[in-house]
Amino acid sequence: MFPLQTVLVPHAPLSLHVFEPRYCALMDDVLAAPDQAFGVVLIERGSEVGGADQRSALGTVAAIAEAMATEDGRWGVVALGRERIDVVEWLDDDPYPQAWVAERTEPAWPDGVAAAVDLLVTAERAVRWALGLKGALGEPAAPATIELDPRPAVAAWQLVHVAPLTAYDRQSLLGVDDPIDRLRLLRDLADEESAVLAQRRRGPGST
Question: What DSSP character marks residue 111?
C-alpha cells in the first residue's frame, strides 16, 4: 500500500518519484510480482514521509505502466488507476504499509439511460468551465480542451481526475458507487468551484 496526499481514481495516471527506503522496497517487490500493482489511499492527516499518518479506508489499485530505477536506488514510476478497493484491515508497516483489501464492485455504466447521457454532458461542461477559469487565473490545471476517452464510463472518471477540486472532494467522488450520483456530485462541485474562481477573477469588492 502507498498512502499519498493525493487521490487516485480509476483510469487516471499517477506519477511518483519514490525515494523513501520503505517505498523503494515496495517498488522492488511490486515489480517482481506478476500483477505489478499496489494500492493507493489518501492520507487524511499527516505526512507521506516518515509514517504516523491517518489513512483513508477507500483507495484504488495502481497498475505500473513504466518504472525506471536510478543509480542511487530511487524509482521513477508511472501507474494507471484500476479498480477501487476497500481496506479491510491494516497490517504491519514493516517493511512498508500493507493491508488486506477487498475490491469494490463498479456498477455497469447505464448505457442508453438519458439521465446518464445528460449528466455526463453537463458535468463535462462544468469541469471544462472551471478549468478555463483556473487557467485564466494563471493557476496550474489541466487544459480546458483536454481530450477525453470516447467510452463514457472512462470519460466520467477522467473528469473526476482533472476537475480542479480538493483532495477531499475527489475522495468523496471516489466513494460514490452509482455513476449517475457521481456525475451529479461532480457537476455540483465543479459549479461551486467555478463560482469561487469567477469571484476571484473579478477581484475584491466585486459582486
Answer: T
pLDDT in tens, 113-149: 898 999 999 999 999 999 999 999 999 999 999 999 9
Give CA–CA dist 130/117, Å, rounded.
Answer: 20
| Domain annotation for the chain: domains and CATH numbers | 2-103 (2.30.130.40), 114-202 (no CATH)
* Helix axis angle, 114-136 to 152-162, nearest 10°: 30
pTM of the shown model? 0.91
Distances (CA, A) of 167 to 6, 37, 160, 163: 6, 22, 11, 11
pLDDT digits (tens, 9 = 90+) for 153-199: 999 999 999 999 999 999 999 999 999 999 999 999 999 999 999 99
